Amino acid sequence: MVVQAEIRENKKRPELPVILITGGAGFIGSCFVDLLINKSKTVVVLDKLTYAGNLENLEVAWDNSNFVFVKGDIGDTELVSQLLKEYSPQRIVNFAAETHVDRSISDPADFIQTNIVSLEKFLRTVTEYFLNQSEEFQEDFRFLHVSTDEVYGSLGSKDKPFTEESPYAPNSPYSASKASGDFLVRAYYKTYRLPAIITHCSNNYGPRQYPEKLIPLMTLHALSGKSLPVYGNGLNIRDWIHVEDHSQAILDILQKGRIGQRYNIGADNEKTNLEIVTAICRILDKLQPRKDNKSYLEQLRFVEDRAGHDFRYAIDSSKLQEETGWFPKHSFEKGLEETIRWYIENQS
Question: Hey, is 45 helix, strand or coil?
Fold first, then answer.
């Protein structure tokens, strides 16, 4: 599906309640859009369509009468003001961000601009909109900011998982920019009464993820006969969650979460990078064997470790589960195989 229009909307005007989703053409944002469309919510997506944003990710929603797409930047105060005035959203979910650690190491400036400068402009515009609404509207309004577990820094092998009380200790330009954004959201909640909530999620996986991330990168490298580069000794640990479980958690937090709170989202599913790559190879050996019948593991190569590489992330989601009743539904083994099957069938 190729769409050229800068602004696209259906002839039928959306009815309240309206949810504005920034970064909704990305991997996680588009999954959240799919979840809302299936629940007959009215959805307005604002996305700059950088390298990680893809209109094909919105194919499910595109022809729905409750869907509106606008190409633009959250830092464009004039455009954002126009959208807020025209559609009067009662819920705003901010996915818009630069997210890849390696990119932040080679070029931190884009991360500072998007995750801090543009976010502050967006917060200022949204706050002005919020303060000009009726008391009844303000009571129902929610702003949810999607952050990351990486703001907490790194854990040792025997440390307890991150909780919402864990101190911030970012170790990369990416995580530092996200931490700064979190503090801005908190400041707008404390200073201007913006009804904000912040979420911190662990590593996501699933269909449609941009190929620079670990699982699609290794899958597509393997299928194309390239080497599978693993940082250091491959023993760095991440907590993995299916993108659909993450999306459901965000919806539950929007409906049941408390204003001014932070919620950790994880699946209690810790794996080393080497375990992930090995699992990918084993699944590919079964689903699409190499022509020489050798294992894809033959393509694995260890490379120099990344600068400032956090050793381990682990998430304690007990607060989220206790307050909303959410829990992850996808098993990692089945979810990973389904994900890899999707990449096999959608290599283009």
Answer: strand
Band the pLDDT of 10: cuts 50, 70, 90.
very low
Residue 300 host element (H or E): strand 300-303
| Domains in the chain: boundaries | 14-209+241-268+313-330
3-state secondary structure of 19: strand
Q: What is the mean pLDDT of the chain?
A: 93
Which residue bears the tokens 């201007």?
192
pLDDT tens per residue across span 43-64: 999 999 998 899 999 999 998 9
For residue 17, say if its preceding peptide bond is cis, omega within 30 degrees of 0. Answer: yes
Q: Which CATH class is domain 14-209+241-268+313-330?
A: alpha beta
Place of tokens 């954004």: 181
Q: Are 248 and 326 in contact, with CB atoms under 8 Å apart? A: yes
**Under 8 Å between Cβ of 198 and 147:** yes
pLDDT tens figures, 154-185? 999 999 999 999 999 999 999 999 999 999 99
258-307 pLDDT, tens digit each? 999 999 999 999 999 999 999 999 999 999 999 999 999 999 999 998 88
Other C-beta atoms lying within 10 Å of the C-beta of residue 298: 12
How far is 13 from 64, CA to CA, in rounded Å?
12
The greatest distance separating any two alpha carbons of the chain, rounded to the nearest whole angstrom, comes to 69
Q: What is the dihedral of CA 61, 62, 65, 70, to 10 degrees?
A: 110
- Coil, strand or helix: which one is 65? coil
pLDDT, position 261? 98
Chain-centroid distance of CA 155 in Å reads: 21
pTM attached to this predicted model: 0.92
Catalytic center residues: 149-150, 174
